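Entry 14. Structure prediction run on the chain below.
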Amino acid sequence: MNFKVGDEVVVITGSDKGKKGKIIKTLKDENKVVVEGVHVVKKHERATAQSTGGIIEVEAPISASNVMIIDPKTKKRTRIGHTTDNKTNKKIRIAKKSNEKLD
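Output returned:
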Protein backbone atom coordinates (compact mmCIF):
# COMPACT_ATOMS: atom_id res chain seq x y z
CA MET A 1 0.00 0.00 0.00
CA ASN A 2 1.36 3.41 -1.00
CA PHE A 3 -0.60 5.56 1.46
CA LYS A 4 0.66 7.10 4.69
CA VAL A 5 -1.07 8.74 7.63
CA GLY A 6 -1.63 12.43 6.85
CA ASP A 7 -1.95 12.05 3.07
CA GLU A 8 -4.69 14.16 1.46
CA VAL A 9 -6.95 11.84 -0.58
CA VAL A 10 -10.20 11.91 -2.55
CA VAL A 11 -12.76 9.07 -2.71
CA ILE A 12 -13.23 7.89 -6.31
CA THR A 13 -16.12 5.44 -5.92
CA GLY A 14 -18.95 4.53 -3.60
CA SER A 15 -21.54 6.56 -1.71
CA ASP A 16 -18.92 9.10 -0.57
CA LYS A 17 -17.56 9.71 -4.09
CA GLY A 18 -15.87 13.10 -4.44
CA LYS A 19 -15.28 13.70 -0.73
CA LYS A 20 -11.80 14.78 0.33
CA GLY A 21 -10.02 14.21 3.62
CA LYS A 22 -6.83 13.23 5.38
CA ILE A 23 -5.89 9.66 6.19
CA ILE A 24 -6.21 9.02 9.92
CA LYS A 25 -5.14 5.38 9.98
CA THR A 26 -3.87 2.72 7.58
CA LEU A 27 -4.67 -0.98 7.91
CA LYS A 28 -1.94 -2.56 5.79
CA ASP A 29 -2.96 -6.19 6.42
CA GLU A 30 -6.51 -5.54 5.19
CA ASN A 31 -5.48 -3.00 2.48
CA LYS A 32 -7.83 -0.40 3.96
CA VAL A 33 -7.58 3.21 5.12
CA VAL A 34 -9.61 5.37 7.50
CA VAL A 35 -10.27 8.84 6.06
CA GLU A 36 -11.40 11.83 8.13
CA GLY A 37 -15.10 12.60 7.51
CA VAL A 38 -15.62 9.76 5.02
CA HIS A 39 -17.74 6.60 5.50
CA VAL A 40 -19.14 7.76 8.84
CA VAL A 41 -21.19 5.05 10.59
CA LYS A 42 -23.21 5.06 13.79
CA LYS A 43 -21.88 2.92 16.61
CA HIS A 44 -23.84 1.96 19.72
CA GLU A 45 -21.65 2.25 22.78
CA ARG A 46 -22.42 0.88 26.22
CA ALA A 47 -22.12 3.19 29.22
CA THR A 48 -19.03 2.64 31.38
CA ALA A 49 -17.49 4.38 34.36
CA GLN A 50 -15.54 6.68 32.01
CA SER A 51 -18.19 7.40 29.35
CA THR A 52 -21.95 7.88 29.24
CA GLY A 53 -22.49 5.71 26.19
CA GLY A 54 -25.10 6.24 23.48
CA ILE A 55 -24.95 6.39 19.72
CA ILE A 56 -21.70 7.88 18.41
CA GLU A 57 -20.48 8.47 14.87
CA VAL A 58 -17.10 7.07 13.82
CA GLU A 59 -15.21 6.78 10.54
CA ALA A 60 -15.12 3.21 9.22
CA PRO A 61 -12.31 1.82 7.04
CA ILE A 62 -12.67 1.84 3.26
CA SER A 63 -10.66 -0.03 0.68
CA ALA A 64 -7.43 1.64 -0.37
CA SER A 65 -8.39 1.04 -4.01
CA ASN A 66 -11.34 3.43 -3.58
CA VAL A 67 -9.18 6.47 -2.83
CA MET A 68 -6.56 8.41 -4.80
CA ILE A 69 -3.98 10.85 -3.51
CA ILE A 70 -4.32 14.56 -4.31
CA ASP A 71 -1.42 16.06 -6.27
CA PRO A 72 0.14 18.91 -4.22
CA LYS A 73 0.83 20.98 -7.36
CA THR A 74 -2.34 20.59 -9.46
CA LYS A 75 -4.78 19.78 -6.60
CA LYS A 76 -6.26 16.96 -8.71
CA ARG A 77 -6.21 13.23 -8.07
CA THR A 78 -3.19 11.28 -9.25
CA ARG A 79 -1.47 7.95 -9.01
CA ILE A 80 1.61 7.37 -6.86
CA GLY A 81 4.98 6.51 -8.37
CA HIS A 82 8.33 5.68 -6.82
CA THR A 83 11.81 6.88 -7.64
CA THR A 84 15.14 7.22 -5.89
CA ASP A 85 16.44 10.50 -4.52
CA ASN A 86 19.74 11.43 -6.17
CA LYS A 87 21.24 12.96 -3.03
CA THR A 88 20.37 10.31 -0.44
CA ASN A 89 19.70 7.24 -2.66
CA LYS A 90 16.46 6.62 -0.78
CA LYS A 91 13.19 5.53 -2.35
CA ILE A 92 10.64 8.38 -2.44
CA ARG A 93 7.00 8.70 -3.51
CA ILE A 94 6.10 11.04 -6.37
CA ALA A 95 2.86 12.19 -7.97
CA LYS A 96 2.61 10.74 -11.48
CA LYS A 97 0.93 13.83 -13.03
CA SER A 98 3.42 16.48 -11.93
CA ASN A 99 6.46 14.50 -10.67
CA GLU A 100 6.15 16.36 -7.34
CA LYS A 101 7.62 14.76 -4.23
CA LEU A 102 4.87 13.58 -1.85
CA ASP A 103 6.75 13.12 1.41
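DSSP finds no helices and ten strands in the chain.
Filed with the rest of this week's runs.
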